[in-house]
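User: Hi! I'm working on a homework problem where we have to compare a predicted structure to a textbook description. Could you give me the structure for the chain below?
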Amino acid sequence: MTHAASFAASAPSDPVPPADGNLTVGEALRLALEHERAGRLSPAEMLAAAIVDAVPQHADALALLAALRLRRAGGEIGREEARTLLARAVANAGADAPFFANVGSLLRRAGAMGWALAVQRRALALDPVFAVAWFNLGNSLSDGSDAQPQPAARAYSHAARLLPNHPDPHCRQGDLLLSLGDPGAAAVCFTAAVQLTPEALPARLGLGDALRAQGRGNAALAVCRVALAVQPDSAAALTLLGALLVDDGRPDAVVAGVAVLRRLAGLCPDDAVGRLALGEALTRLADGAERDSADSALRVALALRPADPRSLRVLGGECFAREDEAGATRWHRRAVALARSAHGAGRVAALRVESSSRATGAAHRTLAPARAMAVDTGTTRWGEITYRLPETFLTRVEEGRVHPHHFTVEAAAGALVVDGLHAYSRSSLTMLPHIVHHHPAAVDGLGERLLVDLPHAVQRVEEEAILLGGDGNFAHGVLDWASKLCVLERFPELAGLPVLVSAALRPAVVELFGLLGLSADRLIRVEPGVMLSCRRLWVPSLTHQFQYMAPEHLAFLRDRLGLPTESRGGVAGGGRRLFLSRAMAGHRGLVNEAEVAGLLAEAGFERYVPDGRSMAEQIAVFREAEAIVAPVGGGTAAVVFAPPGTRVIELTHERCVLPQYAILCALLKQPYQQIVGTAVRNRGVLAFDWDFRAPLDAVAAMLRPLNGSDAHR
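Assistant: Happy to help. Predicted structure tokens:
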């Protein structure tokens, strides 16, 4: 069958309906296409309808008429008419891949997303190397509430390989990869598109966005300025330039960014994205007058795009910063309603973050006051690190609420106890799904507030209980949450009470708790997302904050497990050399693990996969370790079971250079070295979750002093 998309013959200048007998069906269809391409929709539709009346099974005419109805009528009526016509077209079509590719796109526009996917796949079954079908499949997969971004990116990748000189598949693939948190791969796609069409702004600005997401602000600025040289009044380029200047953070750069975005507001007063960027930039300025300007810009952005979730979220955050809690709640509820959440907004409340002593009063018992800690890491990078160990305490809360996900405690009168219970940074705290907005504390440490959206359903705990908490991370379980057992050891009178823990705890961590004296039969497992209401709750604190270890916890851990605290001379452990594999990890993977493992094998290292191993086995293996090479990740925490004198080499990347294991190893008297590689892609949700490549030359250099100890083996 010949299809409308392939017609190119000329037609008479005056349209004549087929019913007059002056045109054949083929001539009428060619003429209808000419009218459609020239924007003359009425005569095009008249001709297509006449063909369908004369030949009701004419698939090409049915498809063209559907396209014209979509363009003319719009709305649900036009989409319904188009779907009916396209059903007839598909039923009467032959085995022609271009036809099905075109019809799939029309079905997508008509809102029949599932059907569109089926038709696109039918086109590819007929012609697996038809590039347009791959591109259209990517479009269908990336649209709507049921979008499938990863399969869509793969479809665009196929299209890009089949159309190497066309920029669109590269750009669309780059957009998707950027949305999937892989700006490195997105930058590669946008660079390819820029090389094909250097003058095209979407590709160049996409590259700027990808570079910005990688934290490469200067490179993104250079790309943005080239775009502005091509088109000085480009709204998208000015928005990116303003955002990049604000990202810089220096006061003069933020002011310059605001000036750019104000210029954009004058040039394009109806540009919602630019108005939102201006509102966000103005919130960065401390000037009270600018806060009113920020509010105005955000309200204009919202008026231009009333259903934009980001505008609602930013405006709500600005209201919360100005202590307009009612306004913040109102905008949040609207955002939830627009998202059509099945459960809607829950209990939305503004809470004050308070210390345990202020929130619980006389029930609070201090075991050790906050104090400074200095640790010499023995490394060039970190040297001596001084940090603050928080107060260690036990408190009791009557009729308290335990918040989901992070096990902080809401006491009476809207006071939330966070410090001592939550191991991580405030930025991590605000990533939790039920926390809507966060207003930091003032210089005096007071005034910290949270707006939370908590579930209405509350699980009641009538029996007196202890709150321990936890999560699904092995390292946090061993190094952080287990430290609460160090505190509880001081209170043997509580030993018979049940203990509330996260149901996400790893089995190995539960096993460790048992080895430390907390038997599994005392545990009450709390599912993620569940809100608890507790009649009486005993709340032990952590002994430290994330990364910055307390020696008391390490001493408790090693004493209870019967591990040595001093080196016995000679080779540490049993002389085993371990390379910890992250091959099973979902993120922070070592992309050249096979090469690193091969290099280490020559020096006597064995590949060890800790995932799924029992705690007893891991302790037995690590207590025999002479040297450990570990890519950054939760499994590295097992160095805590290795003897003093064990050499520890951590492999990481430039986006995750942390002092955590330098401090831990120093306290354990384990020589430590950190090798920094190159981030490649991010499959996780956090800024440091990148997969990375370790530099083989640095790994080889690290092995030389170790190889000098082979005589001891």
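For your comparison, note the following. The two ends are 77 Å apart (CA to CA). Residues 515 and 561 are 7 Å apart (CA to CA). Good luck with the assignment!
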